[in-house]
Amino acid sequence: MAKPATQRPKLPGVGRLGLVEKTAQADLDQLGWNTDAHVELLWSLSRAPDADSALRTVVRLSEALGRDWAELDAALLTDKPLRGRLFAVIGSSLALGDHLVANPHSWRLLAGRVRLPSIAELARMFADVSEKVSGATAAAPVLRTLYRDRLLVLAALDVAPTVENEPVLPFTVVAEHLSDLADAALQAALTVTTRAVCAERQEEAPPPLAVIAMGKCGARELNYVSDVDVIFVTDDGSHSRLALATRIAGEMMRLASDAFFEVDAALRPEGKQGPLVRTLDSHVAYYERWAKTWEFQALLKARPAAGDADLGRRYVEALMPMVWTASEREAFVPDVQAMRRRVVELVPAGVRSRELKLGTGGLRDVEFAVQLLQLVHGRLDESLHVASTVNALAALGDGGYIGRDDAANMTASYEFLRLLEHRLQLQRLKRTHLLPEDDDDEAMRWLARAAHVRPDGRHDALGVLREELKRQSHRVSRLHAKLFYQPLLESVGETALGLSEVMSAESAERQLAALGYEGPQSALTHLAALTSSGGRRGRVQQVLLPTLLDWLSDTPDPDAGLLNYRRLSDQMADQRWYLATLRDEGAVAKRLMHVLGTSAYVPELLMRAPEVIQLYADGPNGPKLCDVDTDGVARSLVASAARHSDPIRAISAARSLRRRELARIASADLLGMLDVTEVCAQLTSMWVAVLQAALDAVIRANAPAGGPPARIAVIGMGRLGGRELGYGSDADVMFVCEPRDGVEESVAVKWSATVAEQVRARLGTPGADPPLEVDANLRPEGRSGPLVRTLASYEAYYSQWAQAWEIQALLRAHRVAGDLELGERFLLMIDKTRYPEGGVSAEAVQEIRRIKARVDAERLPRGADPNTNTKLGRGGLADIEWTVQLLQLRFAHKIPALHTTSTLDTLNAIGAAELIAEGDIELLRDAWLTATRARNALVLVRGKPTDQLPGPGKLLGAVAVAAGWPEGDGGEFLDNYLRVTRRAKAVVRKVFGG
């Protein structure tokens, strides 16, 4: 019986090969790849990241080779490694595919046993070419071809699936080889340009010139496509030789940029404004006197790459000692904080989630953390004097500065992100760090195949890649904080016992100081206290603190923030929801750290109203801090107080709710959730409710059996009347009463005065929250006059005796509490005084101007800077408000829209009536808002009322943060304040001064 014939593999269709383009079958037919002999070849093609792209490139390559195509075709059938390398590289890189088509015989570089050349072999390859060409014009295309050929070989070994016994190239090998390739290329460019420039200048010997590699090239961790950062140094300072070295350096940069990659010398002293080439002595002098922290950080990766090797070595030896003492510089901490902010702000919000390099949880997070730890600890530990990120992570782990597991995990995440970066750059040999759009499944699927991501049973390769990206980004973000702080916790906590590698106390203090903590010893004490408690609480704190400390380090006062956090945690030791909320609600924890490290005002309130912390979370309608019915809260406050017959307990209940509302409003303000007008309106609403609650309680306690002998209304004056209260504002009020039927006026007035005095006294009593100062000094006759008057008494006084300042004060009068009908009649009564027919007299206007001049001269505190006092200073609140009120006095009788107590509403009415230019209106409005915001910020930061902005320094930076100033730059905040108020003062002089 005959044996059955061996079954040949079945020829797959284009669909099974992953080919989707309509011309795919025609292309296969053109190549002759449609026979049973090509089955294995076609399956190799199908494994290319983009099989269609690979097939198109093969067709073009066959046309470019012409009669030589047969050699490649035959080799592909028999050389399995060649198939894997060729299809992988042209399916991954359109640019290298184009290079192959332009240089078709370069395919032979991928055949047989292929290995990466050594550094010496690379140097010889480029030296041979550079010796055979003369002039940059002739050298550029030849050097470019050689460079692309070497990229082709590296990429083929990097992206090809494992074939035979060839191992997958580790990321570190790829990055080091790219750096070695860059060194050889730079040396070739330098050789060509030196020879050409010296021949042109008829110079027999070139000046000594060393090319120092910086950045990724200096660290031997270069990308496929990167700018290569360099610094040029010479040793001959004569004018002619320095000029010659500069010409050579410039020509070398142009040739290298044309042939290989962009060469960037912006990291040199003074950046692009500084000379391209300096002597070694000049470099040393610059770094000793002028260099900033980021420049020393950049020098961490400095390495001689080309040119005079001895000069390059001396350059590194001269500057490295300065690098390792940079952390002792006075500006180190603020410089580091500024660098951290700048990294985040460089990335547009719309692409932050796609940015592999600068996005949250990206490559820069890893690199920045590692470099900072090197700078902090490298002064005393030479094992950290390494340039590459991967090597530095290993050294930090070995030295106990970060956990060994954290170092390993961070390294794995870093290498994964760099792998994706390499694949993205290979596609078109363009510098990019952006992942494809989230909805671009095809591009993401290509990336997954190029990165050798495999299905896992639950997800296809695309799903696995997306899940892995989320996991790695989250891990980097989490480890970024742990790298800084977990070893600190281990150095103070019980977990340090038994560990072989634990950071010393001195190292821990040094690291905390570098991260912005001015009292590192106290900080370590707080950390020890927070983590020393046994059981669940201590374990949760161990998990939370690395991230919390990281967030605190970005606040104006990390030391105070950590102390506040410890106090709050001690206070909440028995409340399980507290740590659970911080653990499970990342937004709550981050917002709380910002508040604790910025404000002295809010933490004290949170100690007594900790439930407000739960409002830091986001709700369905946005942040819960803002999802509040302010009027409803006011009604609840009054109702809560009304449940108590004892006025002391009633007012205590009202103050408790006020404390909670103050904590909520101030928290929302600090977190940028409320604008300044909303803050003022909500503070006013809360103040009014407390006044009403206190008045009701005192009336109930003092009312005789027959009921209260009088009705009482509280008239708000000043900022209270204008609904413009700040955190440090008193409540300016006047009390008006009206006897009940059958009650003598003297009895009613006396009883009402008792009630008013008790309200003032009990609200002003110091307690667990800021006292509520009720100020009645704006009443007729001021402090000398009776505290309470009847409506008729007020009317008689204002009709006969009202002085100019009293008329002006009435412009802000508004009923706020008590009997609202009586308050309304009071307002109608004073309208004829504050808005008189025909306007106020010229004499009254002059009197107001005279009073203002006296206030300016006498009321400003001794030693205060008149330019930066938010209330009485130049262009401050008093200037704006007096100017607005003068216009009201002059024109309100004929412009009803001016009948308002709000400064901003009055400004709008002034503008609508065209009493002054719209541009002047904007300047006054901007100054009022700026000064109000600054004044509120001062209270939030200092914890007590003050009107004076501090001078440059830490406190001013905190005020800037509290005022919502971008980056918390105190200098820019102050400059803006001075500019805005200066312009407003010019308007005040013109309008108020006549």
Shape: elongated
| Beta content | 5-15%
How is the biggest beta sheet arranged? Answer: 5 strands, mixed
Number of strands: 12
| Distance N to C terminus | 124 Å
Which class do the helix and strand fractions yield?
mainly alpha
> What is the top-level CATH class of the domain at 24-263?
Alpha Beta
CATH topology of the domain at 24-263: Beta Polymerase, domain 2
Helix coverage percent: 55-70%
Uncertain segments of ≥5 residues (pLDDT<50)?
Answer: 1-8, 494-500
Overall pLDDT level = 90
Number of helices: 41
Radius of gyration, CA atoms, in whole angstroms? 38 Å
CATH architecture of the domain at 24-263: 2-Layer Sandwich
Within CATH, the superfamily of the domain at 24-263 carries the name Beta Polymerase, domain 2
